[in-house]
Design a protein that fits this description.
This protein is mainly alpha-helical and about 200 residues long. It has 9 helices and no strands. The protein has a single domain, classed as Glycolipid transfer protein, GLTP (Orthogonal Bundle). The chain is about 60% helix and about 0% strand.
């Protein structure tokens, strides 16, 4: 498998900085920064849908996750019970990223607290089974399981974070995980209030 292009190196610091910018003082989540956080994590298709909405004619309605949810629900722009005329609504697209954020949070927390000999493939798989797997059909779960098997060991994985020595990565994960967790919780509560957690 080819490695990532040099100019697209993953950097944990960038992801951390972006998620720091996500929350306003009133705990609104800025969609622009949320999307930028995922850019560092390479979720291109979902990002592009949200960027298009952000820069579209109703972009002012998409400044925060909260304003997006209100706008789309008020204007019947969300398929609530079955796939229909809004397969790429902001609410549905963000829900997919939201579920993945939970996996990321669980995985990074395992990475932070694990020992040097721990297998990232196991951590990744466990985090996946606790989060995303329940939303995926069997064939996707199988493919994911195979992909996790080729992950490098913990020392090599920490190096890929492009932050520095392992203890620096662990310290930064200590900062990143609570931030990601807070963004996740705020979104989870908002979606739960509006019955959006099971959008088709």
């Amino acid at each position: 498998m080819a490695g990532p292009q040099e100019d697209q190196k993953f950097c944990l610091q960038e992801v951390l900085d972006t998620f720091k910018l996500c929350l306003s003082e009133k705990k609104d989540i800025y969609l622009e920064h949320y999307v930028a956080g995922w850019r560092g994590l390479d979720a291109v298709n979902k990002i592009n849908i949200l960027v298009t909405l952000l820069h579209g004619e109703n972009g002012s309605q998409y400044v925060t996750v909260q304003s997006m949810v209100k706008y789309e629900l008020d204007n019947d722009l969300v398929d609530l019970t079955k796939r229909g005329s809004h397969p790429e609504s902001g609410c549905r697209t963000l829900l997919r990223l939201h579920r993945a954020l939970r996996w990321l949070e669980l995985f990074l927390e395992r990475l932070r607290t694990s020992g040097e000999d721990s297998k990232t493939s196991v951590m990744c798989s466990e985090a996946y089974n606790e989060s995303l797997s329940q939303h995926h059909p069997w064939v996707v779960r199988k493919a994911a399981g195979m992909a996790f098997c080729v992950l490098p060991g913990r020392p090599a994985f920490l190096e890929v974070m492009n932050v520095g020595p392992p203890e620096r990565v662990v310290a930064m994960l200590g900062e990143a995980v609570p931030l990601i967790s807070e963004v996740y919780q705020i979104t989870e509560e908002l979606y739960a209030q509006q019955n959006l957690l099971d959008l088709p």
